[in-house]
Amino acid sequence: MTSEFVFFYGTLMAGFDRRRRAGIDDKLRYIGRGSIRGALFDLGIYPAAVAAPEGHIWGEVYEMSDAAAVLAALDDIEGYRHDDPDRSLYMRKQVDVVLPDGTRAQAWVYFYNAPLGRAQPITSGDYLEHVKVR
User: Fold this and answer.
1) What one-character-per-residue DSSP string does 64-75 give?
2) 102 C-beta neighbours (distance < 10 Å), count
3) pLDDT higher than threshold 60 for residue 1
4) Cα dihedral value 78, 83, 86, 90, nearest 10
5) Which sequence spans correspond to the domains of the chain?
């Protein structure tokens, strides 16, 4: 059985309350900090990642012990409906993630799927750093 990974770049990272409330912590094993390609924006209460060929988004990589249960809980949190993806707030996709040791793996990531409006770009690609200085 292959490992399934998930990549968090916003309020689902350690230190925020959202993931604990979802009750999935016991199904996640922290691998380390990683990065994906994309652009990050500040929506105010949480960030939005969009797929982009340039730029990096920094976050945390986790291995899931019960991927179906974890992804179902995350889909709920992120407003992703696989039966109606166009109307979902976030889209779930598997992308390349660079792991702490420099190797690559596939990880599930939630990309923002609504208009960005006047959202400010987070040029560092690092939401944790951004909220410290905000």
Assistant:
1) ESSHHHHHHHHH
2) 6
3) no
4) 10
5) 4-127
CB 41 within 8 A of CB 112: yes
pTM value surpassing 0.85:
yes
> What's the rounded Cα separation, in Å, for the pair 59 and 48?
13
4-127 has which fold? Hypothetical upf0131 protein ytfp (3.10.490)
All residues at 6 or more sequence positions from 49 whose CB lies less than 8 Å from its CB, including other chains:
9, 10, 36, 38, 39, 40, 41, 57, 109, 110, 111, 112
Specify whether the CB–CB gap between 41 and 122 falls below 8 A: yes
One-letter identity of residue 101: D
Assess contact for 58 and 33: CB atoms under 8 A. yes
Q: What is the pLDDT of residues 7-45, one digit of tens each?
A: 999 999 988 877 777 889 999 999 999 999 999 999 998
Residue 64 near residue 6, CB atoms below 8 Å: yes
